[in-house]
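Protein in question filed below.

…
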Amino acid sequence: MRIISGQYKGRRLTAPKKLPVRPTTDMAKEALFNILNNRYYFDAVSVLDLFSGTGNISYEFASRGTEHITAVDTHHACVKFINQTASEFNMPIQVLKSDVFKYLESTNLPKFTIIFADPPYAFPLEDFSNIPALVFKNKLLENEGVLIIEHSKHTNLSYLEYYSYSKSYGGNVFSFFENPEETGSNE
């Protein structure tokens, strides 16, 4: 796994082999950040990285200047690895060991500009659908914010409420969810 842009561009990170993860490929990550780069100034956003695994996405945001990053994962070894890496590189990543769904149901959560979720590809559709349901029910996105769910090309999320569009890169798909009332508020 490598950081593809920003302050730590080119740095390679090696996660322990025993982690139960499937990091986003460099090709897919680069394409995703090209989309986001055309829409946001990374030093002006807040990011929530759900099912953060190795922290691959959080490191990329931190390398590009994002100061407010929260990474949530339930696996102790993943949380430990992200904490160690963030500390080593002095990255502003707050790491929480929590079940993602319990976290999203918490009260008094801040709003985020970008929420990225990379759940296990084998998740049941009901679990995939609970992610946007909880994010929008609890109003966790800022105005002009976006929820991005990474999933397999064999999973279709286009029927879910707040779905906007998808982009495919190899076997990876990023589905984007937005609140039309909020995204249209500047018109």
Observations:
- The helical segments are 26-37, 56-63, 76-88, 100-105, 125-137, 180-183.
